Backbone:
């Protein structure tokens, strides 16, 4: 029996998941459960078990809900921060940029942007200059 994505994910995320994967890994299921409870979460599992996607998919789901008006705090824009080594950029691209692009195709009216900043990023961009951040959107 295939275990689908937990039912508390947004329907667009559910559709995207069903088009890409059969079932979540144990690391993903346990990670999502802890993250959804608001706990500080460390997912320790072997390479290839979906740890990065587990973290990013929860963030994308929250951003999607807020962008569609479901659960958006009054007067707040959604923000998530991922701190990673520069060597993790390929993993971040695979597990954030690609899913975000594919999910956006399923919900074209929703705009969720992402920006990458590193020690090489000029100071004005690190301060959050919106015009520069937009240039780094995927």
Residues:
């Amino acid at each position: 029996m295939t275990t689908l994505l937990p039912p508390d994910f947004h329907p667009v995320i559910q559709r995207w998941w069903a088009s890409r994967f059969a079932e979540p890994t144990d690391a993903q299921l346990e990670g999502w459960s802890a993250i959804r409870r608001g706990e500080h979460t460390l997912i320790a599992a072997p390479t290839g078990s979906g740890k990065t996607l587990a973290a990013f998919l929860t963030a994308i789901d929250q951003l999607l809900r807020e962008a569609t008006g479901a659960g958006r705090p009054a007067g707040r824009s959604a923000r998530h921060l991922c701190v990673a080594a520069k060597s993790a950029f390929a993993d971040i691209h695979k597990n954030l940029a690609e899913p975000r692009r594919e999910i956006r195709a399923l919900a074209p009216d929703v705009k969720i942007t992402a920006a990458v900043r590193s020690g090489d990023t000029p100071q004005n961009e690190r301060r959050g200059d919106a015009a520069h951040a937009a240039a780094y959107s995927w």
Observations:
- The two ends are 36 Å apart (CA to CA).
